Amino acid sequence: MKSRESLVRLKEFQVREKQRQLGQLQVMMSEFERMAKELENQIVFEEKKSGITDVNHFAYPTFAKAARQRADNLQVSIRELKVQQDAAELALEDVQSEFAKASALEERDVTVRLRA
pLDDT tens, 47-98? Predict the structure, then answer.
């Protein structure tokens, strides 16, 4: 029954790994959101300093344009990470289910061995 114990340990490892990956995605998303907010604050500051809020105006601050582009890129990255997060959550559910099945089989085997 050693192979069943190994299977349980493998599934447990896979669950922990998926949880770690999910955590990393969440940390990255929150960091990107924080960076985007900082950029938005810098854009507002630059617009107030120059007195120009129209992005298409010829004298719109170059820094604000660049910051706006970076903020937009971060939002795209956040959306992509959200898709990855959804996929990771589904994968975690699958692995947790497999782990539960393997654990139940292992528990059953232990019970059978104890009775014998």
Answer: 999 999 999 999 999 999 999 999 999 999 999 999 999 999 999 999 999 9
Whole domain around residue 65: which residue ranges? 2-115
The type of residue at 8 is: V
Give the torsion sign (CA, 97, 98, 103, 106): positive
Report the CATH number that the domain containing residue 52 is assigned in CATH: 1.10.287.1490
CA–centroid distance for 66 within its chain: 26
Tokens representing 1 are 């029954």
Any idea which residue has 């985007």 for tokens? Answer: 36
Alpha helices in the chain (DSSP H): 2-50, 62-115
Q: Which two tokens stand for residue 37?
A: 């907010």
